[in-house]
Specification:
It comes from Streptomyces viridochromogenes (strain DSM 40736 / JCM 4977 / BCRC 1201 / Tue 494). The chain is of the alpha+beta class and 154 residues long. It has a domain of 54 residues. It is 39% helix and 11% strand. It has a 4-stranded mixed sheet with strand order 1-2-3-4, with helices on both faces. A hairpin with a 4-residue loop joins strand 2 and strand 3. Helix 2 crosses helix 4. The longest helix has 24 residues. The termini are far apart. The site of zinc ion has 6 residues, from loops. Zinc ion (ZN) binds next to loops.
Length: 154
């Protein structure tokens, strides 16, 4: 076990540290940004931080394809309890536990509200390879809007 190698686990905000955390956040190369540029390069048009008003939830996907109704969330491993990197027992569990549980509950509520409204939801973990994530999103997009070039002969 090498606990020092996990980049996704922040420490709780103590007065002296919150400034530090903000600096770290800004400096991070965001997988989200990489995925966006890959989608853009593939000719996909999307909205960023598009807030939806749905029954029971107001989700704000990181990337939204409003015509195809595909919502993409790029979830941080720690904040959204990724099965590989989230929820390390004993690591600040008392402080973060309830917060993280609320995050996950909100994620699931958003998924359900989006699905009920006819949206496809793609959730990408920040640890995923951006190329593969972008390919996955494009596959969902293409499946969500088949034959958009015109009527299919049938
Ligand atoms: Zn992860």
């Amino acid at each position: 076990m090498t606990p020092s190698s996990d980049p996704a686990t922040p420490t709780p905000p103590t007065p002296g540290r919150s400034r530090n955390m903000a600096a770290i956040k800004r400096r991070d190369t965001k997988p989200e940004r990489t995925i966006r540029s890959l989608l853009h390069a593939a000719g996909k048009r999307y909205r960023v931080d598009y807030r939806l008003q749905l029954e029971g939830a107001r989700p704000r996907p990181d990337i939204a394809f409003t015509r195809a109704r595909v919502a993409v969330f790029v979830d941080g491993c720690f904040w959204h309890c990724c099965p590989e990197h989230g929820r390390q027992p004993g690591v600040n569990g008392g402080y973060w536990g309830p917060k993280l549980e609320r995050n996950v509950a909100r994620d699931r509520a958003a998924d359900e509200a989006l699905a009920a409204a006819g949206w496809s939801v793609v959730r990408v973990w920040e640890h995923e390879d951006p190329d593969r994530a972008a390919a996955r999103i494009i596959a969902v997009l293409d499946a969500a809007a088949p034959g958009s070039q015109g009527p299919r002969a049938g």
